[in-house]
């Protein structure tokens, strides 16, 4: 399960709102292990710049920026819980490209679909496939 405060959920949706391309970032908090049933608790959202050649349908975090964000997370006493990105036109599930580029087994990959009825879903990458996990909002 991916548990996050309402403020973090709102931050992801705000990041995605009005963007023509995919947005992306890193989730920080306390990781609940590799099992999709284990609870990972998000405490902070770290926005990243999408540097993909085709940001309308892909996302890539610059490796140097990713390293800076991860170091800041760890320096703050937190862990990387996972990553988030958006699918501006849907669908609200991991794509083939998402699976091809997933590189962190046991971590959460949250996908946001902005719009009139925004949606945030999450999946844990097993190293071979994505397994859906529950998303719970905290006050």
Automatic annotation (TrEMBL):
CDD domains: MPN_like. PANTHER family: CYSO-CYSTEINE PEPTIDASE (PTHR34858). Residues 2-139 form the MPN domain. This is Proteasome lid subunit RPN8/RPN11. GO terms for cellular component: proteasome complex. Keywords: Hydrolase, Metal-binding, Metalloprotease, Protease, Proteasome, Zinc. One of its GO terms (biological process) is proteolysis. One of its GO terms (molecular function) is metalloexopeptidase activity. Signal peptide: none annotated.
